[in-house]
UniProtKB/TrEMBL annotation:
CDD domains: AAA. Residues 147-378 form the Sigma-54 factor interaction domain. One of its GO terms (molecular function) is sequence-specific DNA binding. GO terms for biological process: phosphorelay signal transduction system; regulation of DNA-templated transcription. Residues 6-122 form the Response regulatory domain. Residues 395-414 are annotated as: Disordered. This is Acetoacetate metabolism regulatory protein AtoC. It comes from Anaeromyxobacter diazotrophicus. The modification 4-aspartylphosphate is found at D55. InterPro entries: AAA+_ATPase (IPR003593), AAA_lid_NorR (IPR058031), CheY-like_superfamily (IPR011006), Homeodomain-like_sf (IPR009057), HTH_Fis (IPR002197), P-loop_NTPase (IPR027417), Sig_transdc_resp-reg_receiver (IPR001789), Sigma_54_int (IPR002078). Keywords: ATP-binding, DNA-binding, Nucleotide-binding, Phosphoprotein, Transcription, Transcription regulation.
């Protein structure tokens, strides 16, 4: 028989420690406890527990800092952390899960819920380890991560990608709004291109880096090419040899770099910065843009000749709101993936959840849908994804326990006025809570507490 699983409870409340330890021991676990962050971290190092139940508010540290420490100390074998948060601190709980906590429980904690969550964490840990054992190939990973949707529009996208896969030198331009899956389609195209799929797929985001760095990344540089170039470095074109170079946000590429890239496309050779040797570029270029490149050409921000070179084969990915048939299949796909990763059994979408997802326009496209489902999986405690767990931007979001809206003609209550005042200030400060605290003349923690109490959603200022 394997030794009992080790569970560590870190909480400054003595009664809770004693009761929790007893309940966990009754389940056959080796349960230990600590009253502070310092004591807890020391014990975790010695004990190497599988699961830690961690209080968010400890006398000597913030639970989130302890969470990070536990993960950093784990060296790949870190415990799963169940965060205990105060009632009304849902935002904190969600933040904890985003920082890597396995799940959270709201205080006062019911012992059956504690035991159940600890068991789920142990099961998830076991499954994760098994999954780590068979590290799949890149192909399997991408294809498992894909659910291209059932709409005619997405079937057409796949068809086009498969067609162009047969021509390994043809440049491809993928155009679509942010979050529609352009990178995913580029990866799929790479994997389906028999002559290139064994070679690397390298990505360069042209929007994220300044011009000189962009060129150094793409072409590489010789030693001494510029002040910081202490040694020679091959660029992405060399690293991708034989494979695919994915130029994301190509519409943001500076004009000078555009001229150099055009030359590579025309001659299939290039030089490192500061280099004198011609190097061959045997790669397929796939570019992506969320901007209208033709309009950029008309404005003089993008070269027409380069546009023609990049846009030999064009794939347009429509926004999610134009292919509503894809919303539910994608939502179910993400739910299955994310719930199993969280070790939760959430079998499907509640009918009201489906209705709300279908009514929402998803300005952030598939990425936003995935985030909505991810957050829902974190919040859901039942076996279907309920509408309460699914928060959509800019929807009116009364909290379940919030007072009913006043009858027409009735003056607003003081609470309602304060909520509206706080929301207005947050809007003005673009979500900056310390600014709001200064304006209101209260402390920062007070603002946080009020935001949680009133259930104000901060994501619109992200
Ligand atoms: N059809 C799909 N199936 C599964 N996941 C998808 C699909 N489309 C998009 N996604 C997911 O949505 C997110 C955004 O996709 P991706 O990064 O490919 O979009 P993008 O169009 O390149 O975005 P951006 O323009 O912002 O770079 C990723 O997490 C991706 O895995």
């Amino acid at each position: 028989m394997s030794p009992p699983a080790k569970i560590l409870v870190i909480d400054d409340e003595k009664t809770f420690r004693v009761v929790a330890q007893a309940a966990l021991a009754a389940e056959g676990f080796e349960a230990r406890s600590a009253a502070s962050a310092g004591e807890g971290l020391a014990l975790a190092r010695e004990l190497r527990p599988e699961v830690v139940v961690l209080d968010r508010n400890l006398p000597d540290a913030d639970g989130l800092a302890v969470l990070e420490r536990l993960r950093a100390d784990g060296h790949g074998d870190e415990p799963l952390v169940v965060m205990a948060t105060a009632y009304g601190e849902i935002e904190n709980a969600v933040q904890a899960v985003k920082l890597g906590a396995f799940d959270y429980l709201t205080k006062p904690i019911q012992l059956p819920a504690l035991v159940l969550t600890v068991k789920r964490a142990l099961e998830a840990r076991r499954l994760r380890r098994r999954a780590d054992g068979f590290s799949g190939t890149a192909r399997r990973r991408v294809e498992r991560g894909l659910c291209l949707g059932e709409s005619a529009a997405m079937r057409r996208v796949v068809e086009l990608a498969e067609k162009v896969a047969a021509s390994p030198d043809t440049t491809v331009l993928i155009e679509g709004e942010s979050g529609t899956g352009k990178e995913l389609v580029a990866r799929l195209l790479h994997l389906r291109t028999a002559q290139r799929s064994e070679a690397p797929f390298v990505e360069l985001n042209c929007a994220a880096i300044p011009e000189t760095l962009l060129e150094a990344e793409l072409f590489g540089h010789e030693r001494g090419a510029f002040t910081d170039a202490k040694r020679a470095k091959p660029g992405l074109l060399e690293q991708a040899e034989g494979g695919t170079v994915f130029l994301d946000e190509v519409g943001d590429m500076p004009l000078a770099t555009q001229a150099k890239l055009l030359k590579v496309l025309e001659t299939q050779v290039f030089r490192r910065l500061g280099g004198t040797r011609d190097l061959g570029a045997d790669v397929r270029f796939v570019s992506a843009t969320h901007r209208d490149l033709q309009a950029a050409v008309a404005d003089g921000g993008f070269r027409l000749d380069l546009f023609h070179r990049l846009d030999v084969f064009h794939i347009h990915i429509p926004p999610l709101r134009e292919r509503p048939e894809d919303v539910l299949p994608l939502a179910r796909f993400f739910l299955a993936e994310l719930a199993s990763r969280a070790g939760k059994e959430i079998r499907g979408l509640a009918p009201e959840t489906e209705r709300r997802l279908l009514a929402y326009p998803f300005p952030g496209n598939v990425r936003e849908l995935r985030n909505v489902v991810e957050r829902g999986v974190i919040l859901e405690t039942g076996d279907t994804l309920s509408p309460e767990a699914v928060l959509l931007r800019d929807e009116a979001r009364p909290r379940p326990d919030a007072p009913a809206p006043p009858e027409a003609g009735e003056p607003p209550t003081l609470e309602e006025m304060e909520r509206a005042y706080l929301a207005g200030l947050l809007d003005r400060a673009k979500g900056n809570r310390s600014q709001v605290a200064r304006w209101m003349g209260v402390s920062y923690p007070t603002v946080l507490k009020k935001i949680a109490d009133y259930g104000i959603d901060l994501s619109r200022w992200d």
